[in-house]
Amino acid sequence: MIEITEGLLLDASQSVQQQLMALRSEGMQVSLDDFGTGYSALSYLHRYDIDFLKIDQSFMQNLQEGSKNLTLCKAIIQMAHELGMQVIAEGIETESQKVLLQQAGCDFGQGYFFSKPLLPDDFVALTPNLRCQTG
Known about the structure:
Strand order of the largest sheet: 1-2-3-4-5
Helix content: 25-40%
Number of strands: 5
Strand content: 5-15%
Order of helices and strands: EHHEHEHEHEH
């Protein structure tokens, strides 16, 4: 999977579009990082083949039942699913955040709740059933 930012798509030249298409033809999936914090021009969501939207971690702050951030997360999740994309929430730090996002239909999550960043060898030790090459 390759992560790109909203800014890259807004200013996408023909060269950028061709590179993205070449990566997709090689089997790479595309993830749109930090969704909701940049320009958020929705028009590019249907112009490009995006597999995953990553909800920016800023939406996790004050995420609780009835909050505006939860309302926005729910709207992003629903929109992404309707467009055939999956959703990754960034910056999950609490069980409560994880549960609220699961209830909202979020597909994946990442953040300190699950693990702090790991060095490659530490990751391999944590996940012995995965076959990873490091180096």
